[in-house]
Amino acid sequence: MDLPIIWAGLIAFAVLAYVVLDGFDLGVGILFGVERGATERDTMVNSIAPVWDGNETWLVLGGGGLFAVFPLAYATILPALYPAIIGMLLGLVFRGVAFEFRFRATTNWGRLAWDYSFAMGSTFAAFCQGLALGGLLQGIKIEGRGYAGGWWDWLTPFTVLCGFALVVGYALLGATWLIWRTDGPLQARCRAYAIKLGIATLSLIGIVSLWTPFLHPRFLERWFHWPGIALTSPVPLLMALLAWLGWKALHNANSHIRPFACALGWFVLCFAGLGISMFPLMVPPSITIWDAAAPYDSQLFLLVGASVLVPIILGYTGYAYWVFRGKVKPGVHYH
Amino acid sequence: MFGLDAFHLARTQFAFTVMAHIIFPALSIGLASYLAVLEGMWLRTGQRVYLDLFKYWLKPFSLVFGMGVVSGLVMSYQFGTNWSVFSDKAGPVIGPLMGYEVLSAFFLEAGFLGVMLFGMEKVGPKLHFAATCVVAFGTLLSAFWILVVNSWMQTPVGFTLDADGRFLPADWLAIIFNPSFPVRFPHMVLASYLSVAFVVGATGAWHVLSDKRNEAARTMFSMAMWMAALAAPAQVLVGDAHGLNTLQYQPAKIAAMEGHYEAHDGAPLILFGIPHDDTATMDYEIAIPHLSSLILTHQWNGHTPGLNDFKPEDRPSAEILFWTFRIMVGLGSAMVLLGAASLFLRWKRKLYDSKLMLYASLAMAPSGLIALLAGWVTTEVGRQPYTVYGVLRTAQSVSPIGAPGLAVSLTAFVLVYLLVFGAGVGLVLRLLANPPTRGEHGPSSHPARAHGIVPGPVIAAE
Fold this sequence. Notes:
The complex is a heterodimer.
Chain A: H1 3-31, H2 38-48, H3 52-69, H4 71-80, H5 82-104, H6 108-138, E1 142-143, E2 146-147, H7 157-181, H8 184-211, H9 217-224, H10 228-232, H11 234-250, H12 258-278, E3 281-283, E4 287-288, H13 289-292, H14 296-323
Antiparallel strand pairs in A: 1-2, 3-4
Helix pairs in contact in A: 1-3, 1-6, 1-7, 1-12, 3-4, 5-6, 6-7, 7-8, 7-12, 8-11, 8-12, 11-12
Chain B: H1 6-45, H2 48-82, H3 84-118, H4 120-123, H5 125-154, E1 159-161, E2 167-169, H6 172-176, H7 181-210, H8 215-249, H9 251-258, E3 264-265, E4 269-276, E5 281-288, H10 291-297, E6 303-304, H11 318-347, H12 355-363, H13 367-381, E7 386-388, E8 392-393, H14 403-433, H15 447-453, H16 457-460
Antiparallel strand pairs in B: 1-2, 3-6, 4-5, 7-8
Helix pairs in contact in B: 1-2, 1-5, 1-7, 1-13, 1-14, 2-3, 2-8, 2-14, 3-5, 5-7, 7-8, 7-12, 7-13, 8-9, 8-11, 9-11, 11-13
């Protein structure tokens, strides 16, 4: 069995799980920019408070997993995207603690400061993730076994576009999550946000998708030439279908979970598109999955554990979501 | 010793982020176990005071855990950003070990933390207790794996090197149970328990000082002193075993800790002195003859190494290790003393009456954490000049990142950490400044949060 392929699939799964899970809770943070009421903000944070820790752990698995089974990718991607990665981490530090701190702030000023940190940290982390994604897609210059590019290689119009796209996309995930988990006026407003964000997300997906094939000739070949096109054409077709379903759900006041499910579907399809472009590359344009792979023994050792532990993780993560299911009620104040 | 070149900036940044980080997991490990004990005692005895204490300590725990998560996230990427060559070479061995940490421990903790913090009314006391135990177990499991990794870097075995200088795993059991792991793991767990014991003890002492009849304050003080009385002497024994282990596998580190530049037969224990690495001399030395040999070899005239036995480029810095080791041992001795004093006062039935004891406990609040940091600095700086001891040098492990980039990111880390974790520690201290009360409420019963997450019972009870 081809272990590097299995592991590439598992790492891709971890990254996708991270993107959709932390995506919606980062999105809730981004929406702090437009939802300013203290009660609404409490409700929004309460909807994600019990689960954000677990969501963020998928990012640790993405990084740690890459280190474990594709050390060469880990050792070249991180130095190449250094400023974007550090920016993302600092953004996540801010928003992670702001979560807990805002409930403990005793002054209005303190609370606003942490709300602001939460919103800014979430937005900045999302933007940096987009930069990093774009930076990886457009390619990383390698010599020997190390990064050989310059300090600002990662900063191009394409990566900035990816940064904005991810902020908008996460905000959409956040808005549709809140449609699912809240009700009343907050839910109605989130529906309105989601419609605008949905249009913006689809447009940005379109632009990024059209731009990506022109980054490398092999991407172009994959997407627009036979036989690649047989594999690739279902992606935009499914996307169109899901866009239509999402649009209908957003305009139906009785749909609660469907807008979120459709937005998740969009992310999954984009991710599949990314996979189609990149495969079998791990670090474009030169390092393949097999080049980057750790020795067989290392990959096998962790795979034994992962094949037992990942299903268990999915089980109790599902349980944690189940315990905190249902609509989150807005707060009632004592005074 | 720290110039402003990229190499030293990378080291400074890693040292800063890892030292800031380790404080939080150390507290999480200790607090999670303490919370499990408190909840278990409540379920067994039905006494309200244990539930009050559980809810009282659950609030700082949630803050500490959150800070541990975000600072730990940074660590999982620091290896790649700052030490990419090390990551590429040692990744095949330590990567899967860290993978196991994430899969077996991090997810477990994060998955059940939500239930532990907010789920009491949703799942009932029994399942909730199970969630608390799972979180506590997860913190210990996480410590297990990360100490496997660290111990392997200190005493690497079970690998072969390929043509590129990559470490290839040959025997996973040998790698996991490498020679220094069996002493390092209990040393760290006990250090975490002691760190929390002295924080809890000081909090209890503070509130007993202002109200001697506060039952919850007395109970937490008493429990903390039991922990000090039992764990501090145990830590001395484990620490002794650790020293013998280090003498066997990393003699240069021991020489630097002892401040011995010359090898001895019957080495003196240097109590005070000022070491100078460039001249390999010790100024103003005050020493007890033969004691170092007696401690390290358990023999009056046992042979101990000196730094001069090693080439200058292979030596760790005695100028740092000599001091950090003494800080750790000095504080450890004070902990043993305080634990013994608590036993004596308990026997005299004056545990809550002795002002001296209460103030001493208050002063000792940060002792566990300071000793833990000093210990980690000792073992990590003592591993230098290697990342993988004796095989891969630190200078050959560093990323190709320029000094300006590292300087900017280091500055950003320092500013953000001071702001964020400074505020966080401030919030924890403010929580602890409130006395525990009867009918204490947990993290979910802040008005806004309670109505959001846990409707009904909590609020109705008030």
